[in-house]
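Complex 421.
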Amino acid sequence: MAYTLLVRNCGELLTMDTGRPNEPLRGRALRDWHSIPNGYVACEQDRIVALGPMAELDTTQLTPATTLVDAAGQVVLPGLVECHTHLVFGGNRAGEFQRKLQGESYLDILAGGGGILSTVRATRAATPEALLDRALHHLAGFRRYGVTTLEAKSGYGLDAETELCLLEVARAAGRQQPVRVVPTFLGAHVPGPEYHGRPTEYLDMLATEVLPHLNPAAVPFVDIFCEQGAFSVADARRYLTRARELGFGLKIHAEQLHELGGCEMAAALGAVSIDHCDYLSPAGAARVAAVSGGRTVAVLLPLVPLFLRQEQYAPGRAFIEAGLPVALSTDFNPGSCPSKNLWLAVSVACLKMGFTPREALAAVTCNAAWAIGQQQECGSLARGKRADLLVLNVPTAEEIPYWLGENPVQQVIIGGQLQSA
Ligand code: NIG
Ligand code: FE
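Predicted structure with fe (iii) ion bound:
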């Protein structure tokens, strides 16, 4: 068969491929992936079938039907993988932003019945159609930033019926536009308002009334928020253990505001990712790396401390030196990060967490794919992978995080299809 799409004249083709496809990138490997100067990528239907230097392009595979994309000497890389979002919610929290600017803290607002619980009220009051409409709006925004695969958590329903509805909305959103959506069940975000002060009973309700009704093939991950005001390490361990027995992959929001030990607990259970980690110490990171054999990815969310006016950022540099695989994400949600700009997260990771540009780019592609179990499909450019590609408007990888807050995306290709702007 002939090429259906060819991206040519790639000034730098960032493959994110290290030749070690069987584990997430850690240590030196996070920056040692191959880039090809003056390269091309060829696709047949939705798959990459060839890539390399332009001089080696097999022009006999081109036909009048081949879609030609000229990268004009600029950077080409895999589509971004956004591995941690709370995509589906009603309302917004602009009012709380004002309160935060006046000095109230995230946990104070939550303890007063606001925060996550105020979004729960707005979400329960919204129709599924309205929630879907907003989710599609946000997905279109992510796509313009070059996101081609995205994880979407539930967690603003906090009762069995609404949580199941939010997962259905996420799945429907995935079917109705090109960005691939991977749903995660985060019913254990905080105890539902009907279970105020009874977190253990709330988790028991989820474990008996929701988890058995979910199919891990459709909703592959179960997540929990382990924090003061949310769930304890002991409760989280019990709940995640039950989820694992039922065949789900595990995720945790942990060490966001305090070092409680949630990351290590989840890694010991084989969690695919531990997320936030702002208060995870370098010693704790080394223990996580050891207990997980380097399989658990720490998903760092640099826009969250920025938006919460918090000084403490996850010590990403120390995590990398400790051999912990790291990914980066926005954590898009109405409370702690209303931004979809994953490029900004890349820049802030360089500025505040000690990432180099090359490391940060691997963290939003290859390792982000590992963090949501999509490493076979996306996150790097190699034969057989899905043809999810971006053409940027900068000539080198190093320049990407320099243009703080800009969107460098010129062209987005998803599954071999060139997307319109
Ligand atoms: O990942 N930390 C817990 N959950 C979300 C925020 C949710 C919200 O404030 O609405 C997070 O930051
Ligand atoms: Fe989150």
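DSSP finds 14 helices and 16 strands in the chain.
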